[in-house]
Design a protein that fits this description.
The protein is of the alpha/beta class and 259 residues long. The chain has one domain. It has helices spanning 31-47, 49-56, 63-70, 80-83, 87-92, 99-108, 142-158, 169-172, 202-219, 226-235, and strands spanning 2-5, 78-79, 109-113, 117-120, 124-125, 135-136, 140-141, 163-165, 185-194, 197-199, 239-242, 250-256. Strand 11 and strand 12 form a beta hairpin. The relative contact order is 0.17.
């Protein structure tokens, strides 16, 4: 099983640690694209901070993030599971997982990254700012760059297992599974039921996804189909509605009634 997560916009910047070693990251087939994106982002933020702030969607009070990007090649790094923060990652709370769940997280979870394409929790990366909808001079669309190269890396990481896609729509645009993987793809959506209506609530959607990943890692089950994943989630206490299989997989709606 491979669980794909979105990144967090906010990141925790380590105070100390070795600088980035691109060759030390997992999924080395992504290295050329990583180098290209990193070089373009650092150059933009170093040489034209005002334009960088515009490209990154930052206000003048956030120019420290531009400076941080300009120093990415020498900035301290930490494990990716300590860099990414926010609602989903707070709910997942990797630091408090059991030892066996942490081992599963190392091999079963990957984070979609605008800068690195895809990272494992154990990869050491710096805190950076780059949204998935940005267009970086010298590279073009972030999503466009990764759309060209991410597919083989995800497929290799997936192997013969089930792909559990928890990415937001922005990061799902980096790569979409083809029909050849459809039988092994489950896209999970979280819906809130209130007064007979179902709707997406962003904050709770993220928190529930974090709890789902945590529960799957602690449980240890390794479902091999969307139907088997739905059964596992129901056993773990969630209400799940299974959609019809499509060309890109099966959608599972996890329905919650309390925020």
């Amino acid at each position: 099983m491979l669980i794909l997560l979105p990144p967090s916009e906010g990141k925790s910047a380590p105070n100390r640690g070795a600088s980035l070693r691109m060759e030390g990251l997992s999924l080395p087939g992504l290295s050329p694209s990583r180098e290209r994106m990193l070089g373009a982002l650092v150059a933009l933020c170093r040489d034209d901070p005002d334009r960088a702030a515009s490209v990154l969607g930052l206000s003048r009070t956030q120019l420290d993030l531009v400076e941080r990007n300009a120093l990415l090649t020498e900035a301290p790094t930490a494990r990716a599971d300590r860099i990414y923060t926010g609602v989903l990652y707070d709910a997942l709370d990797v630091a408090t997982l059991s030892p066996s769940a942490k081992r599963r997280a190392a091999t079963r979870v990957a984070v979609t990254s605008s800068l690195f394409g895809l990272v494992r929790f154990g990869d050491r990366i710096p805190a950076y700012r780059l949204s998935g909808d940005a267009t970086v001079p010298g590279v073009g669309s972030v999503a466009g760059l990764w759309r060209e190269t991410l597919g083989p890396a995800v497929t290799d990481a997936l192997g013969r297992g089930l792909l559990v896609d928890l990415r937001s729509s922005m990061y799902a645009g980096f790569w979409r599974p083809g029909p050849e993987l459809a039988e092994r793809v489950a896209t999970v959506r979280v819906l809130h039921e209130a007064n007979g209506r179902l709707q997406v609530v962003s904050h709770f959607n993220k928190a529930t996804k974090g709890r789902i990943v945590r529960a799957l890692l602690e449980d240890g089950a390794d479902p091999r189909s969307p139907a088997a994943l739905a059964e596992t989630l129901e056993r773990l206490g969630w209400t799940v509605e299974v959609g019809s299989p499509g060309r890109r997989g099966t959608q599972l709606d996890v329905v919650v009634s309390e925020l």
